[in-house]
Design goal:
Elements lengths: L1 H5 L4 H6 L7 H15 L5 H10 L24 H7 L15 H14 L9 H10 L6 E7 L8 E7 L3 E5 L5 E5 L3 E7 L2 E6 L7 H4 L13
Antiparallel strand pairs: 1-2, 1-5, 2-3, 3-4, 5-6
Amino acid sequence: MEGALYGGLPRQAAEELSLQPQRPEEAKAFVSAFLKRSMPKMKDEAIQDVLSRKAVILEHYAKKRKKQKRKKTKSFTAKQRREMRLFEIEPEQQRYAIFLPLHELWKQYIRDLCYGLKPDAQPQMVQAKLLKADLHGAIVTVTKSRCPSYVGITGIILQEFKHVFKIITKEDKLKVVPKLNNVFSLEIDGFISYIYGSKFQVRASERSAKKFKLKGTIDL
């Protein structure tokens, strides 16, 4: 093994590579120094042991890549959204007839959510599904309120916020109705559900994870 490793190159090969011939001692010293540089974690005894038993696999140390910090996407603040009027509905778009197709889509969405809304469906199941469903497009009516002027308002929900509903009425009037101290009813395929606004002050996106109590009476 050592004879093959440290043996000199043939004269013709050395002349082609422009190499100076080395004595076996010099070649051995060069190989030892090269392996020590290439495998700094191994001791001399371990290197010699590897050379005497099997082929040498030189270690490769990859450079550690610096983790690039992900840039967080900046969202608009509430003040910026108000200034940009992102949630405002233009007056020419405040027409009941425009949003009737949205209501039809909502009804189909609820039917799919409630497994077809069959006549023998359990009212408790329907109520539980509606409390967590998206209400954009639903037709609701204010049935009870501490403010008498809200009672009787009926229309399609266009926008739902944490504390208010924006409703378009058949008279093409956009009403902003607070949830607090109001009870809303909605009907679909003969099932009537009631929403107690005081217990419903949650963003639409967060409502699916909220637990609602279906039992007991709830005051305004």
